[in-house]
Amino acid sequence: MSTVPDNEHKSSRASYADGPRLLADIGATHARFALETAPGVLRQTAVLRCDEFSGIVPLLNAYLHAHGGERIAHAAFAMANPISGDLVRMTNRAWQFSTDEVRRTMGWSTLLIVNDFTALAMALPGLQAGDVLQVGGGKPAPHAVAGVLGAGTGLGVSGVIPTADGFITLGSEGGHVNFAPADEREFAILQYAWREWPHVSNERILSGPGMELVYRALAERNSVEAPVRTAAEIVSCALEENDALCLEVLECFAGMLGGAAANLAVTLGAFGGIFIGGGIVPRIAQWFAGSPFRARFEAKGRFTDYLAQIPTYVIMTPNPALRGVSTILSEHLRGRSGANTLMERVQHLQHELSPAEQRVAALVLEHPRKVLSEPIAEIARLADVSQPTVIRFCRSLGFQGLAEFKLKFAGSLTGSIPVRHSQVRMSDSTHDLSAKVIDNTVSAILKFRDGLDVHAIDRAIELLRRANKVEFYAMGNARVVALDGQHKFFRFRIPTTAHGDAHLFQLAAELLQPGDVVVAISTAGQAPELLSAVDAARAAGASVIAITSSKSALAKKANVCLAVDHTEDSTTFLSMISRILQLLLIDIMAVGISLGDQAGENGDIEKRRLLISHLDV
After folding, report:
1. Considering only 68-72, 252-256, 457-461, which range has the smallest mean pLDDT?
2. How high is the pLDDT of residue 8?
3. Does residue 412 surpass a pLDDT of 70?
4. Beta bridge partners of 497
5. I need a surface site. Which of 86, 158, 313, 330 has the fewest CB within 10 A?
6. How far is the C-alpha of 615 from the C-alpha of 586, rounded, in Å?
7. How far apart are the first and last CA of the chain?
8. 76: closest CA among 324, 327, 318, 329?
9. How far apart are CA 215 and CA 468, in angstroms?
10. C-alpha dist (Å) from residue 612 to 377, 486, 607, 608, 609
């Protein structure tokens, strides 16, 4: 592990209220990490070699063990990989993982994973003159599209488009477009590459492995006996030893990169400039500035004048992708990305507002529907602020005024429900208490989903699928859950009964045999009759699955505990939400058994895990 200096500039901005954010740029060879303690302030920056780790979780643990100490709530990674959905399979490394499973394993609230060049593109608007080296002429147009590409283990390509309230990045895989030779020498390189691959992309040529291929191709074309060299050795021999073949490789490489950059510029209309990143060019930037790159960039026939206006830059600042992924994470947490609700955006921004605006935010969070239905004068009165303060609050969130805020807020509330609990009060109208009961239930389900122990569910499904007989034991409100389980599992041709009478638990348990399974359901998990019956079942050789609180006596006696840790005031209300969560666990196990039956005796565990982790509530 190597460590590079932290950000030199000191920020007067307050640290994040929920602790530092973990940022990473994970490539096929190296992984770069930092902790962002405040906007733009990076600390504990470090570089780790990916070869030293068996997967992403050991890599993360190694960094956090050396540089952590504070609790991480939010993380975002840039990865040299196409990103589509929850499952990530790295292109140039044999790693694959579920984003959500990694988030749960690490105990984080947020984990975003984006393509590394999407992150690099998002960093472009924040680059200053000292962060780049201009190659050739041209001047950037204001508020214009910019493109970025860079060669390393592969070839990354992206772009950034300015909008009225920020920037949009392109999730591009442009490195995989067909390589187009421009002269006889480049055609010879293409013919050499065709011996290995029927499709030759730009990435096959314009990358570290590509540079090695160009070296071999030119050695054969020039009838030169050349020793095997890595890309780093080719660069070193060219610039330090003035080796003729290696110099030709670099010149050819720079020219072909100039052609690829020009294609990107005319495709995007990138009058904001083309930026070169990656692991190769910034290391040879001074030589690159005088290379054939710019001449080839402008060599576009009728479009030479068009391209001459577009500036090209080499990104020289260290770890630029970390800047970009920081911006993406910040936008996500503010809700601009659409991934979070406006309610969550208000929560995250609350500490950044003035004291008067914070009172408006508190009103929005506590009485969202009242804010939607009341005029500005009443909102100001309820928050104990002036009407201009209400307008300033809306503008702090990026809206022109209250009307625009309400429009967006209404759509947010009718979409995904924020994960928060609203206390039902005696003064609530029927409309408000109805909304709070529904919102609280959905919030609890979302929290429950994020805390599911998938491995425990796997073990429970396996026990049930192999069971000779299944008996459900439950008392009180939980009896309906036991009946639901009996009806579902009986359809799988599993002999199933449900007992709701505490006097029958002990008698039924004593008749069990090895291979039988008891599903004991209890919110508190403390009833003596139930605990005694579970002891009798275990003594008879049966297995016990407990659906209960993880800290309960019942949980400790079971073979498998499926935890429901939602807390309710059962002295005032019936335990409605806990019962719904228990029913959800019955449904998950039933679906898991069904999938196992369809996939055969061994089942499809990976498919089942994906189903559970993506349970649509």
Report:
1. 68-72
2. 40
3. no
4. 471
5. 86
6. 13
7. 42
8. 329
9. 67
10. 47, 21, 9, 6, 5
pLDDT for the residue 337: 40
Q: Are 278 and 151 in contact (CB under 8 A)?
A: yes
For 174-215, what is each residue's pLDDT tens digit? 889 999 999 999 999 999 999 999 999 999 999 999 999 999
Which of the two residues, 604 and 77, has the higher pLDDT score?
A: 77
Per-residue pLDDT, averaged over 7-18, amounts to 54
Average pLDDT of the segment spanning 251-275: 94
Considering only CA atoms, give the Rg of the chain: 30
Would you state the pLDDT for residue 445? 81
Neighbours of 277 (CB within 10 A): 28
341-429 CATH: 1.10.10.10
Q: Please report which residue ranges of 496-565 form alpha helices under DSSP H.
A: 502-510, 528-539, 553-557
**CA atoms within 13 Å, Cβ hemisphere of 38:** 11
Domain 451-613 is of which CATH architecture? 3-Layer(aba) Sandwich (3.40)
Question: Where does CATH 3.40.50.10490 sit in the chain?
Answer: 451-613
Which residues in the chain are classed under CATH 1.10.10.10?
341-429
pTM of the shown model: 0.54
In the chain, CATH 3.40.367.20 covers 129-316
E strand or H helix that includes residue 184: helix 184-194
* CB-based contact 549:566 (threshold 8 Å): no
Asked whether residue 327 carries a pLDDT value surpassing 70, the answer given is yes
Domain 2-114 part of CATH 1.10.287.4070: no
129-316 classified as CATH 3.40.367.20: yes
* Residue in 422, 404, 185, 425 with CA at minimum distance from that of residue 296: 185
CA dihedral 602, 603, 605, 609 (to 10 degrees): -160
